[in-house]
Amino acid sequence: MSLTEFDKNLQQLIAQTCQFPPKTVERQRGLTQIYRVIQKSGKLWQENTSYYADAWQKTWLFFCLNLCESATGKCYNSELSSVITWLNNHLKWVLHNEKSKIEQQTNRMISNEILVENQLINILETLKAPEDVPPMLETVRKWAESDVTGELRNHHIRGRKDVTCQLLILRRLPPETNWKDLSQELGLPVSTLSSFYERNCTKYLRKFGEAEGYL
After folding, report:
1. What is the pTM of this model?
2. What are the pLDDT digits (tens) for 205-215?
3. Contact by Cβ (8 Å): 142, 156
4. Is the separation of the CB atoms in 213 and 129 below 8 Å?
């Protein structure tokens, strides 16, 4: 494996750092210097994602613990790759795991949101109300439109006062607008809309449903 001048200088700095025992001032000083060199090199893998900072922190901790000796994984081996390659490979792996976790969490939230909506809205199929009682769906729609307390129109996504619980509840009532279409219309990711809806808007639906005796 041929090394660039940058890699050779970094390898020398690593060798000097690893001469000192873990947790010593000298080891910490060396790691700090390595950190600065890597950050300034422009060789560190970058991604424009919300979870990049967390992934980088986890990667740097792994780097510090396994650069000179094996603590939580295989120790760095300069004969197999440059330290930048080793670091970037681990960072990409952590980023992939973070992305998978977020996707799984989003899918769970969407599933839970669908269950809540079905419990409240599809109950029309199992309840037979007297003819003089308005259909439940229409009652829910009027409640959301009137928003007497103002809580629905005042609860919005941070930085987007136009995307409120009132808007999302009304748009998700039958005939509902799917999340993909809402995402394109509002310019926000599906995960952002669905998670906000699940964490914030469904509690108002449940509260209303319980007050009306639907739940």
Report:
1. 0.50
2. 888 887 877 65
3. no
4. no
Do 29 and 108 form a contact (C-beta atoms < 8 A)? no
What DSSP string describes 4-29? -HHHHHHHHHHHHHTTSPTTSHHHHH
Give 3-state DSSP helix, strand, coil % of the chain, rounded to 5.
Answer: 65, 5, 30
User: 157 pairs with which residues across the strands?
Assistant: 160
Distances (CA, A) of 52 to 46, 99, 109, 140: 8, 10, 22, 41
Judge if the upstream peptide bond of residue 175 is cis by omega within 30 degrees of 0.
Answer: yes
- pLDDT of residue 187 exceeding 70, the answer is yes
Residue 140 neighbours by CB under 8 Å, 6+ apart: 120, 121, 173, 205, 208
CA distances from 152 to 26, 85, 167, 172, 205 (A): 57, 50, 8, 14, 10
Maximum Cα interatomic distance, the chain, rounded to a whole number of Å: 85
Half-sphere exposure of 69 (CA within 13 A, CB side): 9
β-strands 160-164, 156-157 pairing:
antiparallel
Q: Give 145-149's long-range contacts (Cβ < 8 A, gap of 24+).
A: 145/170
Residue 39 C-alpha from the chain's centroid: 25
